[in-house]
């Protein structure tokens, strides 16, 4: 059989012209039985379309892990380190993800009480939710952003998917924006689009900027609240002081360019974790460039959290407009693979009592760092 890649059905809220290249449903091959040639096709499609959906797939945790590993053969650590989150009770992620006893690279996420699952007698899962109810929880890429490299591919497998009424996501930022979604959707937005729609002056800033992330960012941010859109944190001084964090080393702190390069298409995309960032470093404009209307023509460093967050918000908010969001409508046995270095995503919605959700998730800390813009890119977009 040969594989085919079919456009995903888009909800009425989506603008098809912007999302036409985003996401494909894969037919004709089983992700667990790919020949080398078929795997290559799938891998290429993943980087061309950023998200792949396989429907009605049976997949054990071990098979799930092996599939993800194939995208980065030298990697074998879960994105935050195997079982690292189980041990780190002070991380904000601790409440939401638990690793499976026999396949620690695969985590379970969801909502409600699960009994007798893959060697776990009983576990109570908590769905990440925004206190403002039906909002995006937190936009993010899956990455520890300290010590370990950001995973290339994340996979989500729907074991149990509750059915329920549609919910309305309210952006609540004065825009009046709303998005109709199915219960427990995962929302995705493309980093390529997010960069593509930026005004020229913000493109110039993006191509020259680096995001420095807090050491142990998920412990650093654990007491801070997200803004209503889930695109960053409120600045209320609630971050843990750096000296109160578990021991950390400067060499393990991560600083990444704002723009990452898709390894297959060579396209640039905006990829900044809006909650974990602690500093912005900006290079000056290349010599002899016209600096009219260009922000930070001489470069600089921004260390004020409020200023950092306002700037990131300005840059990323355009890209999460309702028409640009792909909210995946989950069915049981859906397997979604996404280019974790090409998009950001968010958990959405609120479950009622009795609405049990169980997902397997696997992403592995990568064996290399993401590619940033080349000198040519900097010259082109500055
Ligand atoms: Fe995630």
UniProtKB/TrEMBL annotation:
Report the cofactors: Fe(2+)
- Which InterPro entries has this protein been placed in? TauD-like_sf, TauD/TfdA-like, TfdA_dioxygenase
Q: Which GO terms describe its molecular function?
A: dioxygenase activity; metal ion binding
**Which residues belong to any copy of the TauD/TfdA-like domain?**
21-362
- Superkingdom assignment: Eukaryota
> One Pfam family for this entry, by name?
TauD
Question: Keywords for this entry?
Answer: Dioxygenase, Iron, Metal-binding, Oxidoreductase
Q: Which family does it belong to?
A: Belongs to the TfdA dioxygenase family.
Record protein name field: TauD/TfdA-like domain-containing protein
Species source reads: Galerina marginata (strain CBS 339.88)
